[in-house]
Amino acid sequence: MSSNPAERRRSPRLHLQLPIFVRGVDASGDDFLDLSRTIDISSVGACLAISRSMKLSEVVSLTIPAPPPTSAGLVPAETRPIQGRVRRSSPAGDVHLIGVEFTRPLE
Fold this sequence. Notes:
Blueprint: E1 19-25, E2 31-41, E3 45-50, E4 59-63, E5 82-92, E6 95-102
Antiparallel strand pairs: 1-2, 1-4, 2-3, 3-6, 4-5, 5-6
C-alpha cells in the first residue's frame, strides 16, 4: 500500500477556486447561508474555505451561483444543490478549511 495519500483518493482533485453558497448548521448550532469558495474539488468531494467552524458529520447544501437565465431557455434557470457531509474541519488563519464528501458523486 502506498504511503502517498494522493494515490489513495477515489477521484483526482482539481485545484479550482469557485464561488459557492454553503447552507448548513455551524458548530454553535446556528443555521447559516454563506458565500464561500472551493479550494479544490473532485467528483466525490471538495475542500472549502468558509468563515465558520463546523462539526464533523454535519450535512451541508452547496450551490454554485449562476447568472440570471437567458430568455432563450437553453440554459437551466438554476443548478440543483449538491448535498454533502463534513468529513474534516480545521482552522486556517481567518477561515476554516472544510472537507466535504458529496452524498452522490458528481457526473
